[in-house]
Write a structure and sequence with these properties.
The structure holds two protein chains of two kinds. In chain A, 33% of the residues lie in helices and 27% in strands. Chain A is built from eleven helices and 14 strands. Chain A has helices at 43-50, 72-75, 91-101, 106-119, 135-147, 165-180, 192-198, 216-223, 265-274, 289-299, 305-308; strands at 5-13, 18-27, 32-36, 58-63, 66-67, 76-79, 153-157, 184-188, 201-206, 209-215, 227-233, 245-251, 254-259, 278-285. In chain A, the strands form three sheets. Chain A has a six-stranded mixed beta sheet, with helices on both faces. Chain A has a four-stranded antiparallel beta sheet with strand order 2-1-4-5, covered by helices on one side. Chain A has a four-stranded antiparallel beta sheet with strand order 12-13-11-14, with helices on one face. Chain A has two domains: 5-214, P-loop containing nucleotide triphosphate hydrolases (Rossmann fold, 3-Layer(aba) Sandwich), CATH 3.40.50; 225-285, 2-Layer Sandwich (Alpha-Beta Plaits), CATH 3.30.70. Chain B has two domains: 2-41 and 186-422, no CATH class; 50-167, D-Maltodextrin-Binding Protein, domain 2 (3-Layer(aba) Sandwich). Chain B is 68% helix and 8% strand. In chain B, the strands form two sheets. A four-stranded mixed beta sheet of chain B has the order 2-1-3-4, sandwiched between helices. In chain B, strands 5-6 form a two-stranded antiparallel sheet. The longest helix of chain B is centred in the middle third of the chain and has 41 residues, at 233-273. Classes of the chains: A alpha/beta, B alpha/beta. The A-B interface holds A 15, 51-53, 70, 73-74, 76, 78, 80, 82-89, 97-98, 100-102, 142, 145, 310-311, 313-318 and B 3, 6, 10, 14, 217-218, 221-234, 397-398, 401-402, 404-406, 408-409, 419, 422-423.
């Protein structure tokens, strides 16, 4: 099956900065793909190029095997990082307008908008002005705008911003449902726990270049089970074992300890019990994506991300 | 194309339904009708009743002449003054008091007191119940004046009538010569030649700024990013400019409709309700209205493209205020040059100025209203305007494409020029 998205050696320069540098990755159809990276890495630029808001200086992008044209914009749905809706229009008319721009008839857009609003429990807000909604509600409306025209490719840039846990789960469930129906989802986010839960494959970019990509399972397995997850109460002195432990992340009553290569976890267990700590969980796991992210990004940090933001301009294609 | 239409519809729909539009559109006709009604009412009011007057002529021999001089008529045909009583010769303080009492009691409105030495000193008094009416004083002064002068002349053996024939002034009427014929000019052309271009100036400014704000709003609310993921920037810009133009056009249509109604029915009604009242005839030729619409559309597309570029270049309302002055400047200059053009519509510098596309909408319209220029001059200005507008729109579109996703400090003019080259 053709890939939903092929990014092939894409480069994009702003006036003085190379925002995206010979980036390549593939997204199989019907998967959830995570595009990750620190601030200023080039994620938003990449997503904008996929949506044909910007045009690459070099390289090519294919959606469903076809080069990008105006029509490609209809194939994809976009949820940008910054929430953007007309504040003084009603929820219903904004959705109908945006849906019509994506090629729907106004009647059809209206029908679907109503259904989606019900689904998100926003039915009674349909005639209210956007500005009257809370941030979380606006985010949901923005999400609806992205999926209204049933795109085959859905691009979500930080979709969980402003959502409380209940709404986060709601959006997550809908994303999984869309995937089950064959939609391909590209997710760009900083929330690694979401990525871990949902993504089939990822691409981690830094300073415009890909530093890690592939199936999430495979990546984590490549690291092996080298992290101990320990829940305990009492003295944590047993963690001061620099010969066995490389680094420690503390989370209150829980600790993730990265083992040195070759270290035996049983030694740590013995030390913990010996010091009188009460252990409620002791688990050997793959490293959390968060740690992998930090590790990979720190490796290459010659270029400060801050340099890459700031005054640079680029013209939208016409 | 459908997308341009969708954007146009949205711009039009959201603006036409606001209170601002309704009020703004109604404001002008309501103002005009109010002014007309007011002037009719005022004419009515000052023409109610004749003033009841008495003349106390202590000098003697003047009363008749004064009474003859008070022969003004009210707009409704009645005499302005009615001489109720004349007392000649030296009378006592009693008679004077008697007249004063009558004034206080309302039997008389006023009386004229001519003292014994009136002919030599020229002094007299107009004793009235209400102190406010100076136009009455003016008429009375004129009557007393001519009576005194006639008496002094007679004393020297000269007849007033002979003297009048000698010193009679000329009465030069202003008559406007135009294609539609020769019509007496009571100042209405001047009024129209001022009012219509001012309306044009105001609407160009207002709609230009509306376009700028619309562009800016989409930037500040970040709506622009969602939009350009579904539509090309040029389509967005086109839909926006056309949509706001449609709003302005609608407003002009409503105004023209009202003007037609007032001109047609208003006069008829005024004549029926208050017979004898004369309204100034408003000579609004259809061609003037047509040209107004043409220059509005041409000027609007020119200026709104520039305003849109300003909106795309900045990221905040305050920056927009500062950056808009180079665009507003030619409009303001047009208004400054207004009066000069009105006075000398056909001198060479004025002809040249009215051909310059940035000034043409207002200055050419002033010339058309005041003294219709030859058609080739009008046609040339429209042509130049069209060509310049197309160029400016392309330039603005480039700046629009670069500025749309740019946020941050207000760009300098030099930087904006770089954008234009870059795009």
């Amino acid at each position: 099956m053709t890939d939903a998205l092929t990014v092939d050696n894409v480069t994009k320069r702003y006036d003085t900065v190379t925002a995206v540098d010979h980036l390549s990755f593939r997204v199989p159809q019907g998967s959830i793909f995570g595009l990750l990276g620190p601030n200023g890495a080039g994620k938003t630029t990449t997503l904008r190029m996929i949506m044909r808001i910007l045009v690459p200086d070099e390289g090519s992008i294919l959606i469903m095997g076809q080069p990008l044209t105006d029509r490609s914009q209809h194939l994809a749905g976009y949820l940008p990082e910054e929430r953007g809706l007309y504040p003084r229009m009603t929820v219903r008319s904004v959705l109908v307008f945006l849906g019509a721009l994506k090629g729907l008839s106004e009647a059809e857009a209206e029908r679907r908008a109503r259904a989606w609003l019900e689904r998100f429990q926003l039915g009674e807000w349909s005639e209210k002005k956007v500005i009257d909604l809370s941030k979380g509600m606006q985010q949901k409306v923005q999400f609806i705008a992205a999926v209204l025209h049933e795109p085959s490719l859905l691009i979500l840039d930080e979709p969980f911003t402003g959502l409380d846990p209940v709404n986060t789960v709601a959006v997550k469930d809908i994303m999984l449902e869309l995937r089950a129906r064959g939609t391909t989802v590209i997710l760009s986010t900083h929330r690694m726990e979401q990525v871990e839960m949902m993504c089939d494959a990822i691409c981690l970019i830094n300073a415009g270049r890909s530093v890690l990509q592939g199936e999430l399972r495979a990546i984590k397995q490549a690291y092996g089970k080298n992290t101990l997850r320990i829940e305990y109460s009492g003295d944590d002195g047993f963690l001061n074992q620099s010969t066995l432990i490389q680094s420690v992340n503390r989370y209150g009553g829980m600790v993730e300890a990265r083992l040195r290569p070759g270290a035996d976890p049983q030694e740590i267990l013995k030390a913990a019990v010996g010091k009188g700590a009460r252990i409620t969980r002791f688990e050997l796991v793959e490293p959390p994506l968060n740690d992998i992210f930090i590790e990979k990004v720190s490796e290459g940090s010659g270029h400060a991300a801050a340099d890459r933001k700031g005054r640079r301009f680029v013209g939208l294609p016409d | 194309m459908r997308k341009v239409w969708l954007v146009l519809k949205r711009e039009y729909g959201t603006r036409v339904r606001t209170k601002g539009f309704v009020i703004g559109t109604l404001a002008l006709p309501v103002l005009v009708v109010a002014l007309l009604a007011f002037s009719v009412f005022m004419a009515e009011r000052t023409a109610s009743q004749p003033v009841k007057l008495a003349i106390l002529d202590e000098a003697g021999g003047l009363a008749q002449a004064v009474a003859a001089g008070l022969n003004q008529k009210l707009p409704n045909g009645q005499p302005a003054f009615r001489i109720v009583d004349v007392l000649e010769g030296p009378v006592g303080a009693e008679a004077e008091q008697g007249l004063s009492t009558k004034v206080q009691q309302g039997e008389l409105d006023a009386y004229i007191l001519l003292p014994p030495d009136a002919v030599q000193s020229g002094r007299a008094e107009f004793r009235a119940g209400t102190a406010g009416d100076f136009s009455m004083l003016h008429d009375v002064t004129a009557a007393v004046n001519s009576a005194l002068i006639a008496r002094r002349l007679r004393d020297r053996g000269i007849h007033l009538e002979d003297l009048r024939n000698v010193v009679r002034g000329a009465e030069v009427k202003l008559v406007k010569v135009s294609k539609e014929g020769v019509a007496e000019e009571k100042g209405q052309t001047f009024v129209i030649a001022m009012a219509v271009p001012m309306i044009l100036y105001t609407t160009l400014l207002i709609y230009g700024v509306i376009t700028m704000r619309s562009v800016l709003e989409e930037k500040t609310t970040r709506t622009v990013e969602v939009l350009v993921s579904s539509i090309r920037p040029s389509q967005l810009l086109a839909g926006k400019i056309l949509g706001v133009a449609a709003v302005g056009f609608t407003q002009y249509l409503i105004w023209m409709g009202c003007a037609g109604l007032v001109a047609g029915y208003g006069r008829a009604m005024a004549v029926v309700v208050r017979p004898g009242v004369s309204l100034p005839s408003l000579h609004l030729p259809l061609s003037l209205l047509v040209y107004t619409v043409i220059f509005f559309l041409g000027g609007y597309f020119l200026y709104s493209a520039l305003y849109a570029a300003v909106g795309a270049a900045v990221s905040s309302e305050s920056d927009a205020q500062q950056m808009q002055w180079p665009v507003t400047l030619p409009l303001v200059l047009s208004v400054v040059m207004f009066v000069y053009v009105l006075r000398e519509p056909n001198t060479t510098p004025v002809v040249i100025l009215s051909e310059i596309p940035f000034f043409a909408p207002i200055l050419m319209l002033v010339r058309i209203a005041a003294h219709r220029p030859p058609f080739w001059q009008i046609g040339l200005s429209i042509g130049l305007l069209a060509v310049t507008t197309m160029g400016v729109v392309r330039l603005a579109a480039r700046i629009y494409r670069v500025g749309l996703l740019m946020y941050g400090k207000r760009p300098s003019l030099a930087e904006v020029i770089r954008w234009f080259r870059y795009a």
